[in-house]
Structures are given as C-alpha cells and as structure tokens.
Amino acid sequence: MAYTLPVPSDWRSQEWKVKIFDDERNEEPHVTIIRKTQMWRLGLRTGEFLDDGPPPRDVPKHFVGWIRSRLAELRREWDGMYPENPVSSREE
C-alpha cells in the first residue's frame, strides 16, 4: 500500500502531494513530490532530487525544506514497505 505524507493545508490547497508509491522496491529509495501532472523524485538517502526534469527549481524551496525535515519518517516508511531495499543499505 502506498504511503502519503500528510501535507499542511496551505500546500495541499495548491495541489502538492508527497508519496511513496507501491512497486518501487527495485528503485533508489525516494519519495515522489506531485503537483497536478508533474512529478519529482527526492532521494531518501541524500535528500537531493534524483532527476533533472521537471526542473527541481519548480518545487518551492520552503516545501522542499519541509519535506527534508521529515526524512526520518519517510525513511521509516520506505524501510517498512521495502525491507529488501532499505534506505540504510547503501548509506555512506
């Protein structure tokens, strides 16, 4: 089952969502930031964006900072969903 991070109402009203989707066990641990039809992947090991497109600069810095402040929670959720690919398995 997918995990959805509860987003504050001011961001939710602007259609921002943060999810860990099902069936991503073989991918680099990440959370998906969603707004309407756009999606960005933020790595749970590094806290950095994994892709260049869409441009990470399109995600408000305050929102990214808020998500990064919840990385411990997101890492626990990922590890619970994908114990065969835990966040800590490749941390330096």
Major pleated sheet: 4 strands, antiparallel
Principal-axis shape equals: globular
Radius of gyration, in Å, reads 13 Å
Mean pLDDT metric = 95
Termini separation comes to: 29 Å
SSE string = EHEEEHH
The low-confidence runs, each spanning 5 or more residues with pLDDT under 50, are none
Helix count, DSSP H or I runs of 4 or more residues = 3
- Count of strand segments: 4
Quaternary state reads single chain
| Overall tally of domains | 1
What order do the strands of the largest sheet run in, or round the barrel if closed? 1-2-3-4
What is the beta-strand fraction?
15-25%
Portion in helices:
25-40%
Q: Which structural class fits the helix and strand makeup? A: alpha+beta
Task: Walk me through the structure.
With 92 residues, the chain is an alpha+beta fold. It has one domain (3-86). It has three helices and four strands, in the order E-H-E-E-E-H-H. It has helices spanning 9-12, 61-68, 71-81; strands at 3-4, 16-20, 30-35, 38-43. It has a four-stranded antiparallel sheet, covered by helices on one side. A hairpin with a 2-residue loop joins strand 3 and strand 4 (38-43). The chain is globular, with a radius of gyration of 13 Å. The chain starts with a strand and ends in an 11-residue tail after the last helix. The model has no long low-confidence stretch (mean pLDDT 95).
Topology, element by element:
Elements: E1 3-4, H1 9-12, E2 16-20, E3 30-35, E4 38-43, H2 61-68, H3 71-81
Antiparallel strand pairs: 1-2, 2-3, 3-4
